[in-house]
Design a protein that fits this description.
The structure is a single chain. By secondary structure, the protein is an alpha+beta fold. It folds into five domains: 2-68, no CATH class; 71-108, no CATH class; 116-239, 2-Layer Sandwich (Tetrahydropterin Synthase, Chain A); 252-306; 314-360, no CATH class. 52% of the residues lie in helices and 17% in strands. It has twelve helices and eleven strands. The strands form four sheets. Strands 6, 9, 10 and 11 form a four-stranded antiparallel β-sheet that branches. A three-stranded antiparallel β-sheet has the order 3-2-5. A hairpin with a 5-residue loop joins strand 9 and strand 10 (152-163). Helix 7 packs across helix 9 and helix 10 crosses helix 11 (315-331). The longest helix is centred in the C-terminal third of the chain and has 70 residues, at 244-313.
């Protein structure tokens, strides 16, 4: 028994074994090491031998370590969600933050800047898990919708969303992706149901996307989902495959109609201004002629009145002058021979007025 007590914990006698042959250095005594550590701690905290101070010191160190474990860091693309005994308390912003250590409080840090995408009406092969190619599989139960003019349209679209409030996102809705998908399909069906098929297939897509995004956001806000819809993007809007050929014929006929209409409008835009210009020219000429005739008539009337006034003063002289002026107007452009009937000789006096006039010219 005494030999057993003198052995070290590793089973070798203190002085060596096997006839005093030392197989190696003697391992340190564990009890001695523990005593040295206790003495060092006691000297550090000012205690004596034994007592509860070493235990208290150890507990204090553990308490400090436990308290420091409440420090946590939230990355710039994350939002901290603090849970107290599993119940949501508040959210924290990026940076260094603190919460009561586990198990009192815990923190979740979901990515709030990541843009998530949900496809409705179609599935890519990558999403379906059937391959890595770029093929797309149509989902008719999601894509076929009834328009306001009782036509059927096959529309595929994608919804992009981010987390706006991490607390609401984690605890207000059970299935975020399913909720967004159901709200998006409901909103799109509502918008399509009040629209005609023609603007859906042509220039009205942007309006449909905007209206759908507003309705989705309204639904999700009513659910307190903490989700922000960033964009609704239409991927395809076509008639059903069974009638697409006939619909394309209708579209071609409508395009021809629009082309003919545009040509007619171009012709009208060319003819109408010219006709208006001609009409304005005729009106201006008529107005000028009117002014000319009125002015001439007024001048003739004034001349007649002035002649009449002179005639009233001297009738014989005025009659003579009027006779001469009339003869001048009547005989001014014809050949004339003047004969003096009062001449007594048999020779007829002749005055060649026309030759004289030509010679003077």
């Amino acid at each position: 028994m005494s030999d057993f007590k003198n052995q070290s914990p590793w089973g070798s006698p203190p002085g060596g074994g096997n006839g005093g042959f030392r197989r190696g250095p003697t391992p340190p005594d564990i009890d001695e090491l523990v005593k040295k550590i206790q003495n060092t701690i006691n000297r550090f905290i000012g205690g004596g031998k034994g007592g509860t101070k070493p235990i208290m010191f150890g507990l204090i160190i553990l308490l400090v370590v436990w308290a420091l474990s409440g420090l946590y860091r939230v990355l710039p693309d994350e939002q901290g969600v603090v849970l107290r005994f599993g119940k949501f308390v508040n959210t924290t912003q990026p940076g260094l933050n603190y919460h009561f250590p586990y198990p009192i409080e815990t923190v979740l840090t979901p990515k709030v800047t990541k843009v998530n995408r949900i496809d409705i009406g179609f599935r890519s092969e990558r999403d379906s898990g059937f391959g890595t190619g770029g093929g797309v599989a149509d989902v008719p139960e999601e894509s076929l919708m009834l328009t306001g003019d009782e036509n059927i349209v096959n529309i595929d679209f994608s919804v992009f969303w981010v987390i706006k409030d991490a607390g609401k996102f984690l605890f207000k809705i059970q299935d975020p992706e399913g909720t967004v998908k159901a709200a998006a399909e409901t909103a799109m069906r509502e918008v399509i149901a009040r629209s005609n098929i023609q603007p859906i297939l042509t220039e009205g897509r942007s309006i449909i996307e905007t209206d759908t995004q507003d309705i989705i956001q309204q639904i999700l806000d009513e659910y307190n989902s903490g989700i922000q819809i960033t964009q609704v993007q239409t991927q395809k809007a076509d008639p059903p495959d069974q009638v697409i050929d006939a619909f394309r014929d209708v579209q071609a006929a409508r395009a021809d109609m629009e082309r003919s209409k545009n040509e007619a409008e171009a012709y009208a835009n060319d003819v109408i201004p010219r006709a208006r210009g001609e009409a304005a020219k005729i009106l201006q000429a008529a107005e000028a002629y009117k002014k000319e005739v009125v002015a001439k008539a007024e001048g003739e009337a004034s001349r007649f009145i002035s002649i009449y006034n002179e005639y009233a003063k001297a009738k014989k002289v005025t009659q003579e002058r009027m006779f001469l002026e009339t003869m001048e107007q009547v005989l001014g452009d014809i050949n004339k021979i003047i004969i003096d009937k009062n001449s007594g000789s048999g020779v007829v006096p002749y005055l060649p007025l026309q030759e004289l006039k030509t010679g003077t010219n």
